[in-house]
Amino acid sequence: MAFRDILEIEVIGGNGGDGSMSFHRAKYMEKGGPDGGHGGKGGSIILRAVEGVESLERLLGRRKFKAGTGNGGEGRLRNGSDAEDIIIDVPVGTTAFDAETGKAVADLITPGQLKTVARGGAGGRGNSVFASSTRQAPRFSEIGVRGQKRKLRLELRLIADVGLVGYPNAGKSSLLAALSNANPMIAAYPFTTLSPILGVVSAKNDEERLTLADIPGIIEGASEGKGLGLEFLRHISRTRMLVYVLDVAVDPARELQALQAELRSYDPSLLDSMALIALNKIDTVEEDVAMIAEDELAKFGLPVLQVSAAEKMGLSELRLALFELLPSRELWAQTHALEVESDLIVVPALELELREEADKDGQVERIWMVKGGGFEEKIERFARHLEDAAEYLSGVFKRQGLYNALKRVGAREGDSVDIGGLRFEYFEDNDDSRR
């Protein structure tokens, strides 16, 4: 299966079921009370991180995910059932970004982690809930809330314990093969590795294991998008530890300096990661050349181990160092999780705008346009029965401070108030506005 680490999908939460407007009917009872049940909740779209999947390729056959609508309420106080959620399995290490805002909405770095990325709408309330001492026969109910709809950009940021970092032909693939059970393609030319390859490394006692990733070779300018740089650097950002693989015969100090410059340009925090240097191909140079190179690299403040993947030299020492220096998974997860969008529903701030319009007789009408504050959504939920619900809505708006807000900005008696196309007349001396 081809490696796929970026994918765009559309996710749509299900609408909530509508509340019922119903009145009890029974023999010998001509006018029963309201008994409309509530609508069920719409299904949500949820991402779930799973192990054993290293690519987003499995989702290629489907780019649109839509959850079901909640069932509507019925008479005799029967509530509609909730729709089922849709769970999309993605590889551990998947980050989801809102394609429109660019904000992260999910960052799945532990197996089994769940994140709702498109909420299902709440069910509408039946007319039974709106009955009161002064409103004994409410002839209105709520429409279910529409589900959340958005386009997502999924990015797989490979979750591996240790990442091998180096320029093309530094010997990363050979080192991975020598240390682990992986079988990467190995050849003496750059860019042998075109996608990350994972291997499992066992400790000497075989009781501990870690995953080792061969990240495709970086070139200078990778942080600016040259070559395949940005695609590869994204995977490096999620490893708990870095191993700089340097060719002892190709000015390793200069290569390390250039590698770190690329990492710093992409994400400065990468240089805070636990790291060591694997000075590779020592079998190709004299011993004193390798020692001089090690002394130069020591100035970077990182442990340096001389190895030869081809001749299996220094591998035991390197394996031991990996297990001793690797940070705990729990600590890493706490410090490397991205800040993601909150699950809380944010109500937009209230905005009041005065417009003046002349009618056909030349009379100027003052209209207050109301946006935000959640008032437009309330109007929408009673769209089927606005005539009958107008008085109830007026009371809701008053209790939630809309009239006080209008008074503070200079609303006058007789002004119109427009909320989502529905107009009320504003009265200072009344308990509510009138439609």
Features:
21% helix, 18 strands, six-stranded mixed beta sheet, alpha/beta, GMP Synthetase, Chain A, domain 3, five-stranded mixed beta sheet
Question: Can you give a write-up of this model?
Answer:
The structure is a single chain. This protein has 435 residues and is of the alpha/beta class. It has nine helices and 18 strands. The strands form four sheets. It has a six-stranded mixed sheet, with helices on both faces. It has a five-stranded mixed sheet with strand order 3-1-8-5-6, with no helix packed on it. The longest helix has 15 residues, at 252-266. The radius of gyration is 32 Å and the shape is elongated. The two termini are 62 Å apart. The model is unreliable at 186-193 and 222-229 (pLDDT under 50).
Number of strands: 18
Under CATH at level 1, the class of the largest domain stands as Alpha Beta
Report the order of strands and helices: EEEEEEEEEHEEHEHEHEHHEEHHHEE
Uncertain ranges: 186-193, 222-229
> Largest sheet, order of strands side by side?
10-11-9-12-13-14
What is the strand content? 15-25%
Please give the share of residues in helix: 10-25%
C-alpha geometry? elongated
CATH A-level architecture of the largest domain: 3-Layer(aba) Sandwich
Instruction: Provide a count of the helices.
Output: 9
> How much is the radius of gyration in Å?
32 Å
State the secondary-structure class: alpha/beta
| Mean of all residue-level pLDDT scores | 87
Q: CATH topology of the largest domain, anyone?
A: Rossmann fold
Distance between the amino and carboxyl termini? 62 Å
* Count of folded domains: 3
Major sheet: 6 strands, mixed
Supply the CATH superfamily name of the largest domain: P-loop containing nucleotide triphosphate hydrolases
Pfam family, one: MMR_HSR1
Enzyme class: hydrolase
Subunit structure: Monomer.
Cofactor: Mg(2+)
